[in-house]
Amino acid sequence: MGCCNDTLNGSIDHGVVDYFKENHKENSKESSQKIFHSALQKRISDILYPILRKAFVHSYNGSIDETYDIQEILGLGGISTVRRAIHIETNFQRAVKIIAKNAISETQKIMLLDEVDTLKILDHPNIIRVIEIIEDTSKLNIVTELCTGGELFERILNSRQFTENTAASYMFQILSGLIHIHSGGFIHRDLKPENILFLNSNADSPLKIIDFGVSKRISEKSKLSRLIGTAYYVAPEMIEGNINYKCDVWSCGVILYIMLCGNPPFNGNTEEVIFSKITRGVFNFSSKLWTDISKEAKDLIQKMLCKDVEKRLSAVEAWNHPWVQTRAKKLIEDNPINLKALKKLACFRATSRLQQATLQYIASNLTASQQIEELRKAFVSLDKNGDGHLSANELRLGYETISLSSSIKIDEILKNCDSDLNGLIDYNEFITATINWQKDLSHELLENAFKAYDKDKNGTISVNEIKMFLGGDGTELDSVWAKILSDADINGDGVIDLEEFKIIMLSHIEGTSLDMS
């Protein structure tokens, strides 16, 4: 990193610093810095190999008890049990969905793995993050980030005062998540309050969309082989066997209607009655409960629950509706442009492709903290179109806001931070570039990351293991993988051991402000 030392003040993990010094005590300060600067000169731009988010979600066979301490039950599903789990090495808290393999069909297993494949690709602050999949002879274990704040309606029922502004702040987040899902070519198909959780119990906790078990990549001519979803929230075209992105918007319209009055717009004692009302598409605001609800809220609901798909709002249009943007203004105002985060973003440099991939892997596995929450808010404040990516223009606007635009080269930021080469800064890329690694890069995290590479557990990382970690598909030149390894292979023996791995990773700290004297 090394260009903005003033932005990196804070406590340093002294165990990490001592380790770095100890492993270089036989060298002079000059030779120690030489290792770092030599690596820096190998700039990651030399190898334009994309590092994809899905590469960090690993699936492997083994006993989950070797990695996690499984704790109390958090929820029960038709085919699964969700429990709290503590990662043994890092002490991170997770949720694990445990599915008995003898209780599911092959089709159900495929659906579960499809859900995981979807979540591997999605990277958004309002979408649940999958961590890893561990399978043994009897169970399939899907590990995700842990949400402890309860379901959407549970929070509403327990709140002393629920306002339109609060409802708008929730819709702002849900629709932003939907924009991201749809931009990836997916439809959720089962949006309902039970599938929208709060990350924690704080009043300003972010929402997380969960349960992508029936999500689907769709095309213009996608058809339903069977009706999927929960009756109250199903769009009329789904009842007729058709699906499109706007099915999810309909579901959001139903959720908003219920949030504001407490009753569903299409009610009935049986699914048949409910579906009949949905097919007609007739609802009203005649109840006294709607007397004090604004015209703008009713306008948005009418446009989201429009039976004519062509006239129904898209997720982007609903997110940009004046009621959402105006009423959620406080949420936006509470996310000021973060000067420190933007400075760190501009200064981010990885010394090798391996280092950048590892930092992203660690960042994707970090649990919620005050620092992560501040960075999430900073990301949201920059994401002007709500799609979960930062474009060059959005970055430019952010730097203009803090009067730094004249000294910042946006193309350099993209070059250094856009590891998947999609021309945008994605959420995890942003967290990786802006987090205070001096505070968070611990020995435990580095050793856990090393083990993620070292599949055969022989204490070294080979070219093939790097390829497996980064998700190579066999089309890359062997020289690409050899170059990634050689950037970190300090002693030139053709593999990377734990000591070399730590030295390369800690050079990220040394390159900022670590005094080697």
UniProtKB/TrEMBL annotation:
InterPro entries: CDPK_Ser/Thr_kinases (IPR050205), EF-hand-dom_pair (IPR011992), EF_Hand_1_Ca_BS (IPR018247), EF_hand_dom (IPR002048), Kinase-like_dom_sf (IPR011009), Prot_kinase_dom (IPR000719), Ser/Thr_kinase_AS (IPR008271)
Cellular compartments per GO CC: host cell plasma membrane; motile cilium; plasma membrane; symbiont-containing vacuole membrane
Coiled-coil spans in chain: none
Uppermost EC category: transferase
Domain Protein kinase: 68-324
GO terms for MF: ATP binding; calcium ion binding; protein serine/threonine kinase activity
Cofactor(s) the record lists: Mg(2+)
Keyword Secreted: no
Source taxon at top rank: Eukaryota
CDD domains in UniProt: EFh, STKc_CAMK
UniProt-listed Enzyme Commission number(s): 2.7.11.1
Domain EF-hand: 370-405, 441-476, 478-511
Reaction equations catalysed: L-threonyl-[protein] + ATP = O-phospho-L-threonyl-[protein] + ADP + H(+); L-seryl-[protein] + ATP = O-phospho-L-seryl-[protein] + ADP + H(+)
Pfam families: EF-hand_7 (PF13499), Pkinase (PF00069)
Subcellular location field: Cell membrane; Cell projection, Cilium, Flagellum; Host cell membrane; Parasitophorous vacuole membrane
UniProt keyword list: ATP-binding, Calcium, Cell membrane, Cell projection, Cilium, Flagellum, Host cell membrane, Host membrane, Kinase, Lipoprotein, Membrane, Metal-binding, Myristate, Nucleotide-binding, Palmitate, Repeat, Serine/threonine-protein kinase, Transferase
UniProt record similarity statement: Belongs to the protein kinase superfamily. Ser/Thr protein kinase family. CDPK subfamily.
Record protein name field: Calcium-dependent protein kinase 1
Species of provenance: Stentor coeruleus
